[in-house]
Specification:
single chain, alpha+beta, Gyrase A, domain 2, five-stranded antiparallel beta sheet, two-stranded antiparallel ribbon, 13 helices
Length: about 325
């Protein structure tokens, strides 16, 4: 037995008067919206931008533009009626005050070819849709990043996950030879396994992290700018920083130029100050070095060590900001 509700709402065809009411609520004329088209980006669609020795990044597709951001912010329809300089001002306002939703209206899909060690860092940004080349289904890409003799970097003494300066080229030549031998051996062993019938999912396990992989990476503009703010930073690993710079300077700058300008101004080239830092800077500006030292001391920034002050990361970061602002460091 099928039970039917006694309160079933009749369909429009069963109630001519209801159909008439529905039609009456529709606008008499609706403006047709056109897909935003960015000519500068259209010209580079599918064009690979070389990164490192054998990597690249290229645009596969995109949605939206600076105009889309402005429209979303104004909750308007069709093309905006404001002047270009007013649109630019609105985008700068949104960026300055971190109103991020309008930037999510734009999306871009990239095809990238990246060494696996850099890709491991890239994939940690979990705000994108990703489809990576499968070495379980297909043969591994026969390419690995090669390091020139003069580009072997030294371990930083102040940052455990960073580098500082390069090794002597004579030492680098030895490391580059070893790298070539290691990559060649790993590839030969991999090929022997494949030729012998070993499963691809197992044959791949000893390939080095320098092996290139490829992926499609689709992300909205807000999350892309966050990615760039971290990976273009001077403290990020050089290899992924080169990809970030290409994506930012060669692609995003062409896609959304007003947004890129605001991003550089308010994010990359800007400076943030904590409450403690503001208090110290105010003291320095007022010519009161004693008060600046007192503030720093109260917060444990000036503890004495065996040879001068103990290392303090917050103090080090403020000193870098003071140097950039051309202000004196009161405890030196």
């Amino acid at each position: 037995m099928v039970w039917r509700s006694r309160n079933r709402v009749p369909r429009p065809r069963e109630r001519p008067d209801l159909a008439h009411d529905i039609e009456a609520t529709q606008p008499e004329t609706a403006e047709r919206l056109e897909r935003p088209r960015v000519e500068a980006l259209e010209r580079i669609l599918g064009v690979p931008f070389k990164v490192l020795d054998d990597g690249f990044a290229r645009v596969v597709d995109y949605m939206g533009s600076d105009e889309s951001i402005v429209q979303a912010a104004r909750v308007s329809y069709g093309k905006g009626t404001k002047k270009i300089h007013e649109d630019r001002g609105l985008i700068r306002y949104l960026m300055r005050h971190r109103h991020t939703t309008p930037f999510e209206m734009c999306e871009i899909k990239l095809h990238v070819r990246v060494p696996m060690d850099a890709w491991r860092q890239w994939i940690r940004h979990r705000t994108a849709s990703v489809n990576e080349y499968s070495t379980r289904y297909s043969l591994a890409i026969d390419a690995a990043q090669i390091t020139p003799a003069g580009e072997w970097r030294k371990q930083s003494t102040g940052n455990r996950q960073g580098s500082a300066g390069c090794m002597e080229e004579a030492d680098g030549e030895k490391f580059s030879r070893q790298e070539a031998d290691l990559q060649g051996l790993a590839r030969r062993v991999y090929k022997e396994r494949i030729d012998a019938g070993v499963a691809r999912e197992q044959a791949r396990k000893d390939l080095p992290l320098s092996t290139y992989t490829e992926a499609y990476w689709k992300v909205n503009l807000h999350n892309l700018l966050h990615f760039l703010s971290l990976r273009m930073d001077e403290h990020s690993q050089l290899e992924i920083r080169q990809y970030a710079r290409v994506i930012g300077e060669d692609i995003v700058s062409q896609w959304c130029p007003s947004t890129w300008e605001a991003f550089l101004d308010y994010r990359m080239n800007a400076m943030g100050l904590s409450g403690i830092e503001i208090e110290i800077v105010q003291s320095i500006a007022a010519g009161d070095a004693d008060r600046a030292r007192d503030v720093a001391g109260r917060h444990g920034w000036l503890e004495p060590g065996k040879a001068g002050l103990k290392r303090n990361r917050e103090r080090d970061e403020l000193e870098a900001k003071l140097i950039r602002l051309n202000l004196s460091i009161p405890w030196r």
